[in-house]
């Protein structure tokens, strides 16, 4: 991946949109804020593009985790089965917590579908959805001290009849 990133820093042609084109409000602002908070937690200023890119590239070393998953989906399946895959991944992540392990879902791997497809020898019908780094949290690392802000419940949920 180190070589691949140097050759193609912007990734390969993706097989699905990780975000919709022209991400709209309020998601655009939330995405921006979560990124700002993350880089702030490790003291990287917004204008420091090289350090931001270097931090992003740590994704492709699984943040030094010793174990990883690549999660794929049969490309003939539609949104309901993609939802199933998300549930499957979350179940795996919760089971990992039960065993004292931590994980980070990593959709960034979808930026390199050709490279990973060749590495895994994926059959044509399987599309790479996401990676997942698995290991033990480094509790001393500054990046692990912050938490993404949470939107107020009333802003995204409506309870009717109670
Ligand atoms: C499907 C999915 C893909 C993600 N992809 C990435 C990624 O590529 N790189 C990354 O650092 N975090 C990734 N994340 C992790 C989020 O950035 C965030 O750290 C994680 O969801 C925990 O924060 P939360 O408790 O606010 O959800 C992903 C999360 C999900 C659910």
UniProtKB/TrEMBL annotation:
InterPro entries for the chain: Nitroreductase (IPR029479), Nitroreductase-like (IPR000415)
A Pfam family matched in the record: Nitroreductase
Annotated Nitroreductase domain residues: 53-136
Transmembrane segments: none
SUPFAM superfamilies: FMN-dependent nitroreductase-like
A GO molecular-function annotation: oxidoreductase activity
Protein name (record): Nitroreductase family protein
Species in which this protein is naturally found: Paraburkholderia diazotrophica
């Amino acid at each position: 991946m180190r070589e691949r990133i140097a050759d193609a820093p912007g990734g390969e042609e993706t097989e699905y949109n990780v975000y919709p084109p022209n991400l709209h409000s309020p998601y655009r602002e939330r995405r921006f804020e979560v990124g700002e908070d993350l880089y702030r937690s490790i003291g990287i200023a917004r204008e420091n593009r090289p350090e931001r890119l270097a931090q992003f590239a740590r994704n492709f070393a699984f943040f030094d985790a010793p174990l990883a998953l690549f999660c794929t989906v049969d490309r003939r399946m539609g949104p309901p089965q993609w939802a199933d895959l998300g549930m499957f991944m979350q179940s795996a992540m919760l089971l990992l917590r039960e065993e004292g392990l931590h994980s980070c879902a990593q959709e960034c791997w979808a930026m390199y579908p050709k490279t990973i497809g060749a590495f895994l020898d994926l059959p044509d019908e399987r599309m790479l959805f996401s990676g997942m780094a698995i290991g033990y949290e480094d509790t001393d690392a500054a990046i692990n001290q912050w938490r993404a802000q949470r939107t107020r419940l009333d802003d995204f949920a409506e309870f009717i009849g109670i």
